[in-house]
Amino acid sequence: MPAAVVLLSGGLDSTTALAIARDRGLDCHALTVRYGQLHQVELDAAARVAKALGAREHRIVAVDLSPIAVSALTTASIEVPKDRALAEIGAPGDVPATYVPARNTVLLALALAWAESLGARHIYVGVNVLDASGYPDCRPEFIRAFEALAQVATRAGGFAIHAPLIEMTKAEIIRFGIKLGVDYSITHSCYDPVDSAACGRCDACVLRRKGFAEAGVADPTRYADPR
Fold it and tell me: What DSSP letter does each residue of 158-211 carry, written as one string?
């Protein structure tokens, strides 16, 4: 059975990416990175998801970006944007304070190192550009560029970087995941959780709510601000 490394944050998108890789008959090795994020809750969610979706193994690797990558997700003094209108989220030129500089580049590099060591040629990442918050490292151009880099940066070469959700809306992702048997109640998307509950007000919560509403699927998320 061919193997894949799947970057797993415990969020809605990466969970669906893992489900897709599994559905395609790949032997999935889940990789979660403790990159200096302020909240443990997403790491706990990743562990739940890896177990529920039957990953062969789940590794958590610590590479602390917080001393050098300034972001609301790594720096407590920077506020997470809240209560933004949908039209504002992901608008042209909008790169919010929750963007972590070069995070996906670092994460994919770690996934590439593990994949080459495993003899795997497939790497899955749950980036999404349509319902994203304007992050530059969630664009198709970034995925294509990293895949090209992977061929010249390794001894083995022949790697495929899969971003199966990149041009899907959150609603489409949720519908697809439901068909694959994903239980979204065990996932976590919030940027600023309150005692393990989603805040209900950050961009990630706004987009998650929108996705479930448009998919016509009951949202299983526990929000601190139910609205």
Answer: --EEE-TTTT--HHHHHHHHHHTT--GGG----SS-BTTBB-S-BHHHHHHHHH
Q: What is the pLDDT of residues 136-166, one digit of tens each?
A: 999 999 999 999 999 999 999 999 999 999 9
pTM above 0.70, yes or no: yes
Q: What angle (nearest 5°) sits at the alpha carbon of residue 223, between those of residues 51 and 34?
A: 45
d(CA 83, CA 80): 10
Single out the residue of 207, 206, 209 nearest to residue 221, CA to CA: 209
d(CA 168, CA 127): 10
According to DSSP, residue 104 is labeled H
Quick one: 94 exposed, middle or buried, by C-beta within 10 A (0-12, 13-18, 19+)? middle
* Tokens representing residue 26 in the block: 């790949």
Domains belonging to the chain, first-starting first, are 3-215 (3.40.50.620)
| Alpha helices (H) along 41-102 | 41-52
Angle between helices 170-179 and 12-23 (to 10 degrees): 40
Q: Which residue has the tokens 């065990």?
A: 186
Distances (CA, A) of 82 to 86, 202, 203, 218: 11, 4, 7, 23
Closest CA to 227 of 195, 208, 200: 200
